[in-house]
Specification:
With 228 residues, this protein is mainly beta. The chain has helices at 3-19, 32-35, 43-47, and strands at 51-55, 67-73, 86-93, 98-103, 109-115, 119-125, 138-142, 145-149, 154-157, 162-165, 169-174, 182-189, 198-199. It has a 6-stranded antiparallel β-sheet with strand order 1-2-3-12-5-10. The chain has a 5-stranded antiparallel β-sheet with strand order 9-6-11-4-13, with no helix packed on it. A two-stranded antiparallel sheet has the order 7-8.
Length: 228
Amino acid sequence: MKRSEINAIIKKFEKLLEDHCFELPPFLKFTPEEWETKGHEYDEIRDNMLGWDVTDYGMGDYDHLGLALITIRNGNVHNDKYTKTYAEKIMMCCPGQVSPMHFHWNKMEDIINRGGGNIAFTLYNATKDEQLDMENDVLICQDGRRYYVKPGEQIILHPGESLSLYPYYYHEFIIPEDSEPVLIGEVSMCNDDNTDNRFLKPLGRFPTIEEDEPPYRLLCTEYPKAKD
C-alpha cells in the first residue's frame, strides 16, 4: 500500500469516529515526531501493538479486500509483565469491503455493529484439518439469543447488534454495496494478531508500504524505540 493511501484511510476513519462521537485515547493522536520523544512509560503501547492498523492482506486491493482498525487495549500472551486478559478494537469497514474468511485458534470475540450500515456475516465450523465444515450447523450466539444456522448461511448485523465468535469458527464479513461505512467494535480475549489468525486462503496480515509521502500517524508496527 502507498503511504498516501494509508494516510487518507486514517483521516477518513477519524472522521467516522467523530461522526459517531467515539473518542480515542490521547496516544492515538500522537504525530510521528511526538513518538520520537516518548520514553519507556509508553512501552505497553509498543509491546502490545496498540494503535492504528490498516491492512490490505497483502493483496493490493484495499477497497475490496481490506480493513482499518485500532487496537485500543490488549494484554500480551507472550509477556507476563502485562496481565490484561482482554482486548478492545474499533474498526472501519466500507461498502464493498470484505474481511476474508478466517478463524482464531485461541481468541473468543464479540463483534459489535457500533453504527452506520449493516454487516453481512458468513460462518462455518472448522473441520479437524482446518477446512470449511459444509455439513454441521453453526451455533450462533447473538445478543443473548442462541440458535443454529446452516453452514454458509448469511447473518445480518444491524446497528447495535453483536455476534459472539468462538475459536475454530470460520467467519467472513462484508459491507453491502448499498450500505454506508460501518463502525465496528470488537471485545475479545487478549490476543496476538501475528500468530492467531488462520485464513482459509493464504493472506498476509500487515501491508508492505510504499513511502510516497510522510506518515500522518504511525501504525502499530512502526513505533520507534523508547527515548532513554
